Amino acid sequence: MSRLAKKPIVIPNGVDFKFQDQIVTLKGAKGSLSKEMPKGISIAHEGKEIIVTIDENQLEYSMWGLYHALINSIIEGVSKGFQKKAFVSGSRIQSYFKR
């Protein structure tokens, strides 16, 4: 049972949400992304929250958490963008650069 997918996804300020014809479209400061949802998964939009629900079918049940996470990642991508931080530490790295 997916516990994560039962929680609503909060839409931050500055992000526009649209769900039409099984396609989720999100627009934010960093761009626009869309994702097509399978037929067994439906989306409810209530205020600043998105709720992902499924039909009682085993195939969609296994994909419930996946599509919840995908929508959450899209929201993060259009609002914050992609960012990767690297932390370099250790004596091996320093000795490598001294050669």
Structure characterization notes:
The chain has 99 residues and is an alpha+beta fold. The strands form two sheets. The chain has a three-stranded antiparallel sheet with strand order 1-6-5. The N and C termini lie far apart (54 Å). The longest helix is centred in the C-terminal third of the chain and has 22 residues, at 58-79. The chain is extended. The mean pLDDT is 84. It has one domain: Ribosomal protein L6 (Outer Surface Protein A, domain 3), CATH 3.90.930.12. It has helices spanning 58-79, 91-98; strands at 9-10, 16-20, 23-28, 31-36, 41-46, 49-54.
* Number of discrete domains: 1
The top level CATH class name: Alpha Beta
Helix content: 25-40%
Rg, Cα atoms, Å: 19 Å
What's the total helix number? 2
The largest sheet is:
3 strands, antiparallel
Q: What coarse outline follows from CA principal-axis ratios?
A: extended
Q: Helix and strand string, N-terminal first? A: EEEEEEHH
At the third CATH level, what is the topology name? Outer Surface Protein A, domain 3
Q: Please state the average pLDDT score.
A: 84
Would you identify the CATH architecture? Alpha-Beta Complex
What is the terminal separation in angstroms? 54 Å
> Which residues form runs of ≥5 with pLDDT under 50?
none
In which order are the strands of the major sheet placed? 1-6-5
Specify the structural class: alpha+beta
